[in-house]
Design goal:
The complex is a heterodimer of chains A (651) and B (565). With 651 residues, chain A is α+β, with helices and mostly antiparallel strands. Chain A is built from 15 helices and 23 strands. In chain A, 44% of the residues are buried. Chain B contains eleven helices and 20 strands. The chains are: A alpha+beta (651), B alpha+beta (565).
């Protein structure tokens, strides 16, 4: 049929055909755009609108979350630790021991628990060793950090700080790659409770926040032939040794108008209403003095060898360094682990990061002080309100204390943190220096602790003074953080110590370059590096030869390295096994320089196969060049008592 | 060389062997056991050393020995001065033997004597080692040159004479020259007088570790007399890793601290303070490093008596100790410290001048100069040689050339004084020396403080109220303690107390009071009490004064008499 025969009929026909095609297309379209039925999941239907598209994506994500639930953690800590521990409280010896045992059982590959001695009172002195115990590297080949708390047993929170550190390293090892790296690279020795006998006494016997400061062995403090015959007396039976006052219309003190439990001195011309009698106690032994011979007294932080002085010069010095068993065993441990290249000693109170020297006549090497300064500056930032000081400059002098001994005689950077600062109360700098001002303490107690820190004044019958009132600050506050600030105190202090630990020296063989000189004569140049802030040997160590020099050695490598021998980090295995008896390999001489161009190198005359290096400074390298007879490959190893070990094979 | 003899014997006359008659550990223990048989002496062990020997203590006394004020005698403080053991034993023997004599009996009634004849037996035993050497310290393996190796370069007996002496290398740049009168002796050349050197010396031996230093590390152990806390020298050879690090030191320090009854310590030690007393001076930082002026007056008096006993004056002033025992006794133990080596080589003239044709002292055929040079330097050595000759002791090894592997082509000679001969007298002198020291110590005991209640009165004030007043007096020569002893409270202070009867109430006290230091020969202190007696009047009250370092006294006062006045 021709289209031209009848125009109207042909146009109608074309129009009808077009409509039919359109209808067909429309129908086909509807079929294609229809959402896929539920039993056809592999064909996601094309979105018809943006709202539907969004709904579809939401559903996808919800389905994914239902099957793959990552814990929603508050950052910087575990959400569901294997050993759950509450960090807003204190732990006594038995409770702490239980936590330690649980952690050692839960993480046997990284946590080892050891009792290094029993105390006078029969408690264990626990030391925890944290490192990757499964990596085949001997403990002494890794640089170690020693962390201790409780040297002064009344300084309560330090045990929790160290306990928290143990818990945190263990629990975060599998969560935080950074923590894993630190634990793998180093060894941590942690002693959370150095004086358990005295901690028990502080907790459960009447004491104040300052006592016991040393041990519990009986000592005749007043030289009268009797031992511990006149200690504290808890006259009001509340377990806290506070102070006594007597109502007196001619008195020197009166209650503060806003905080009535705070006694303040009457101003000149003003009449007080009370007379302060002294510390809660009576004269038990009839010698006219009150509480002059209680528990101990020897100060466990005055019994260390460096510049030790006897009791009449330095209170608490007792007989001679290490004359008390509990101090001696820790001293022995420190001396027996020369791989310790940093230590942290925790105390309260004041908000201080302290370095030695502790005596005015003593001095530290300038180059070493610069290292301390760098570390402590970062500490001031991480611990707001804490100040970095040198003890003899800014605090009282002391003799025979531990962090100066560690620096002067063990040769490592040793820091002391006086934890909990007056700044911590209200975030202000006017709260006092080291000790908080009493009015700050009272204000804090009223508004943030709801009167929990003070024993109310109570009348008792005193055998000597008659009717007196007993009351005052309880023993569990004034030096310690309150419950709600405990975990932050623990974490910030731990973090600073871990920063210090991370900056302990770490040696590596950075590169080995081999050049053939002529025939069998080769020149082997190795670059050794310490990529942390602290040198392998501090200036004091070099001066006194406390640890041996670092040794960089060369030997011919085995033809085929054994499986795992190519491992680079800390494996001093080949160095230990010694060079093979190999007549065709001979080290002729060695040169050492700080510069790659060897401008004025040191010529090693003795034993060039094992070159001694006095120290590898912080963030620095040294170049060692050997002339050897015999082709490679060569193994170059570096061995540092405090900086660890490394070994590489040349190509 | 005779097989059993340690030293080459040159002259025809039989020469006395050094260390003959001296006790090694076994012989010492046998002697101690003998003394232990006496009723007055008890031998006990204070500790076992690294090599399993005992640090022995002899307690001499009667009755409650630990409740009486005591004198301590220590011998052999310096390991090389072995004779101190024998003098200490001799003193113990004399106290036991003369206990029946009235004076000694009375002393033993009132005082105890603790004797430690050999405080570091492992070190003392090294005197008998072969080859013979002057010992330093105990059995601890030490790194004496701080190179992180232990005992890697000990001396060697190069000439096979069984002893370690010196070796000298001919060297015009060396510091020493031979003495013109006696080529055995050398002294420092004075280059400002145009003298050149002739020798440099080393301890006999080779450089085992090829570090250029000779025999610098024999792993000599820790010296007892350098291990105490006063003026301790850190990082020095023989001082130990830190103060009181050694078993021996700790055992003796602990014993002494626990014995609060010790009043004074006498030691045979090079840290003499009797021939030449310590001097006073300023104490920086308020830490005592000089003897107190008041204490010095008393020690000087005792020292004068000591010098009277030993007339010879040829004793040089002792150098200041470091970590020494006797200084520790005074400064850190707070007790009277008396110290003397006990014996030294006296001034001895040269033997009768005879040209001795057989003597060829420097081994190269030259005859010794016949005209004396009046050279003063080296006088000590010359004197020592005179002494050895006078006592027929073969104590010097003549310089003899050897081939030395570390000095190829150079002239090296081995020789010098045998070890220990200058430190120790011939054993024949033990008795005389022990006798002298025994008498000196008896005299010291006679000069100890004597505490008494000089006056005690009770007055009835009426209404059942009484006042008691009592005065304590020290009638002995020495004060009740040294100044440091008092200040440190290490010497327990004199206390006075009123024993209140039942039913009495103290009005004014305190009931027990610590008194100030009482000066010697009449120092006093008074205390008074007020008390009220109930209706039942007690018969009496008692006043007591005491301190373990001096003694005690008490007085009973009758109240009834007072009440009826």
């Amino acid at each position: 049929m021709s289209f031209a025969s009848n125009t109207y009929r042909s146009r109608f026909l074309v129009g009808a055909l077009a409509l039919a095609i359109a209808a067909l297309v429309g129908v086909a379209f509807v079929f294609i755009a229809r959402p896929a039925p539920a039993d056809e999941p592999d064909e996601p239907p094309a979105p018809t609108s943006s709202r539907e598209e969004a709904a579809r994506r939401v559903q996808e994500r919800a389905d994914a979350a239902a099957t793959n639930r990552e814990p929603y953690r508050a950052v910087g800590g575990p959400k569901d630790p294997k050993v759950p521990v509450r960090w807003n409280r204190f732990y006594d010896y038995a409770e702490m021991t239980e936590i330690l045992k649980k952690l050692a059982a839960a993480y046997p590959d990284i946590v080892k628990l050891e009792s290094i001695a029993k105390t006078h009172g029969g408690h264990d002195l626990w030391v925890v060793t944290i490192t990757n115990h499964q990596d085949g590297v001997p403990e002494l080949h890794k640089s170690a950090m020693w962390i201790d708390g409780g040297l002064h047993p009344n300084e309560t929170q330090v045990t929790e700080i160290v306990l928290y550190s143990i818990w945190y390293l263990a629990e975060m090892y599998s969560i935080s790659p950074e923590i894993k790296r630190m634990v793998d690279e180093r060894v941590f020795y942690l002693a959370p409770m150095m004086n358990p006998d005295s901690r028990e006494a502080h907790f459960y016997q009447p004491n104040n926040r300052h006592k016991p400061r040393g041990g519990m062995r009986p000592v005749d403090d007043d030289g009268d032939g009797l031992f511990d015959e006149d200690g504290f007396d808890d006259l009001d039976g509340d377990g806290h040794i506070t102070v006594m006052r007597v109502a007196d219309e001619n008195g020197t003190h009166l209650p503060h108008p806003k905080f009535p439990r705070l006694m303040i001195e009457a101003k000149p011309g003003q009449k007080g209403t009370y007379r302060m009698v002294g510390e809660e106690g009576i004269d038990n032994d009839g010698d006219g003095e009150i509480n002059e011979d209680g528990d101990g007294y020897y100060d466990t932080n005055r019994l260390w060898p460096w510049l030790w002085e006897p009791e009449y010069v330095q209170k608490g010095g007792y007989w001679y360094p290490f004359s008390v068993h509990e101090v001696r065993v820790f001293g022995d441990f420190l001396m027996a682990h020369p791989n310790i290249s940093g230590s942290q000693n925790y105390h309260n109170t004041g908000g201080l990061i302290v370095r030695g020297p502790a005596a005015a006549i003593d001095k530290f090497q300038k180059a070493d002080i610069a290292i301390y300064d760098r570390l402590a500056k970062q500490g001031e930032r991480m611990l707001p309100g804490y100040k970095y000081i040198s003890q003899s400059n800014s605090l009282y002098e002391s003799y025979g204390e531990t962090i100066t001994w560690r620096y002067q005689m063990l040769g490592h950077v040793s820091l002391l943190n006086e934890t909990f600062a007056p700044f911590n109360f209200f975030g202000t700098t006017d709260a006092g220096y080291i000790m908080p001002r009493p009015i700050i303490v009272h204000e804090f107690d009223k508004y943030l602790l709801f009167d929990d820190a003070f024993s109310d004044w109570q009348e008792i019958d005193h055998p000597q003074f008659g009717k007196v009132e007993v009351g005052g600050l309880r023993k569990n506050f004034g030096r310690q953080p309150p419950s709600f600030m405990m975990e932050e105190t623990c974490h910030r202090n731990m973090a600073f110590t871990l920063y210090h630990a991370d900056q302990m020296p770490k040696v590596s063989v950075q590169s080995i370059d081999v050049a053939q000189v002529e025939g069998e004569l080769y020149q082997v140049t190795a670059v050794v590096e310490n990529d942390r802030i602290i040198p392998t040997r501090l200036a004091v160590d070099v001066r006194r030869n406390i640890s041996p020099p670092d040794v960089v050695s060369i030997e011919r490598a085995a033809a085929e390295p054994a499986a795992g021998e190519a491992k680079q980090d800390g494996a001093g295995q080949a160095a230990e096994s010694g060079p093979q008896a190999d007549d065709s390999f001979r080290v002729i001489t060695a040169l050492v320089s700080d510069s790659a161009w060897f401008p004025e190198p040191r010529d090693v005359k003795r034993n060039p196969q094992a070159v001694e290096i006095a120290t590898l400074g912080g963030n620095s390298v040294k170049y060692v060049r050997w002339l050897v007879e015999g082709a490679g490959p060569y193994r170059v190893s570096i061995k540092s008592t405090k900086g660890g070990r490394d070994s590489q094979v040349s190509e | 060389m005779l097989a059993g003899s340690m030293f080459a014997v040159d002259s025809a006359a039989e020469a006395a062997q050094p260390l003959e008659g001296y006790d090694n550990y076994e012989a010492f223990r046998a002697r101690v056991e003998e003394l232990n048989q006496s009723e007055l002496i008890t031998a006990t062990s204070l500790a076992k050393t690294l090599e399993g020997r005992d640090v022995m203590l002899l307690t001499v006394g009667t009755g409650e020995v630990h409740q009486k004020p005591a004198l301590v005698v220590v011998g052999n403080v310096e390991a090389a001065q072995l004779f101190g053991t024998h003098l200490a034993l001799g003193i113990a023997k004399r106290f036991a033997q003369q206990a029946d004599q009235e004076k000694v009996h009375d002393l033993l009634d009132r005082y105890t004597i603790y004797i430690i004849p050999r405080p570091s037996p492992d070190a003392a035993e090294k005197c008998f080692a072969t080859p013979r050497r002057r010992p330093v310290g105990n059995a601890r393996k030490t790194d004496d040159d701080r190179d992180h190796q232990f005992g890697e370069d000990p001396p060697e007996d190069l000439n096979g004479d069984g002893a370690i002496t010196l070796m000298r290398v001919a060297d015009e740049t060396g510091p020493l020259r031979s003495h013109p009168d006696d080529p055995r002796v050398m002294f420092a050349a004075d280059r400002t007088k145009g003298e050149s050197g002739q020798w440099r010396t080393y301890v006999e031996g080779i450089d085992n570790d090829k570090d250029g230093k000779f025999n610098e590390d024999a792993g000599d152990g820790v010296a007892f007399n350098r291990n105490f806390t006063f003026r301790y020298r850190y990082f020095s050879a023989g001082a130990g890793p830190h103060q009181v690090s050694e078993i021996e030191t700790r055992a003796i320090a602990d014993f002494l601290f626990e014995r609060t009854n010790v009043a004074a310590v006498f030691a045979f030690t090079p840290d003499d303070n009797l021939r030449h007393t310590w001097t006073t001076g300023k104490n920086p930082r308020n830490i005592p490093v000089h003897i107190d002026a008041d204490d010095l007056r008393y020690v000087s008096a005792l020292a004068q008596n000591y010098r009277y006993v030993h007339l010879d004056r040829n004793f040089p002033k002792a150098a200041a100790g470091s970590g020494s025992f006797s200084e520790w006794v005074y400064y850190h133990y707070g007790r009277w410290s008396l110290a003397s080596p006990g014996w030294w080589i006296p001034q001895t003239d040269a033997p009768a001048a005879e040209a001795d044709a057989t003597a060829d002292h420097n081994g190269n055929g030259n005859e010794p100069s016949k005209t004396p040079s009046y050279e003063n330097r080296g006088a000590d050595d010359i004197n020592a040689l005179n002494f050895l000759a006078a006592h027929d002791i073969d104590g010097f090894v003549d310089w003899t050339p050897i081939e030395h592997p570390d000095f190829p082509g150079q002239r090296v000679e081995v020789g010098g004084f045998l070890p220990l001969v200058r430190d120790n007298p011939p054993a024949a002198q033990f008795e005389e020396l022990a006798e002298h020291h025994y008498h000196f110590l008896v005299d010291v005991l006679g000069k100890m403080p004597q505490l008494a209640i000089q006056e005690a009165e009770v007055a009835a004030l009426g209404g059942g109220v009484f006042r008691v007043e009592a005065t304590a007096i020290n009638r002995g020569f020495l004060p009740t303690s040294s100044v440091i002893g008092y200040r440190s409270k290490l010497a327990q202070r004199v206390q006075i107390a009123l024993d209140l009867p039942d039913g009495a109430t103290l009005i004014r006290g305190p009931q027990r009071r610590r008194l100030p230091r009482l000066a010697g020969s009449g120092g006093t202190a008074t205390h008074s009490w007020l008390f009220r007696a109930d209706s039942d009047l007690p018969a009496g009250v008692r006043v007591r004064a005491w301190t373990p370092v001096v003694g005690e006294d008490e007085v009973e006062l009758q109240l009834e008499e007072a009440a009826t006045e």
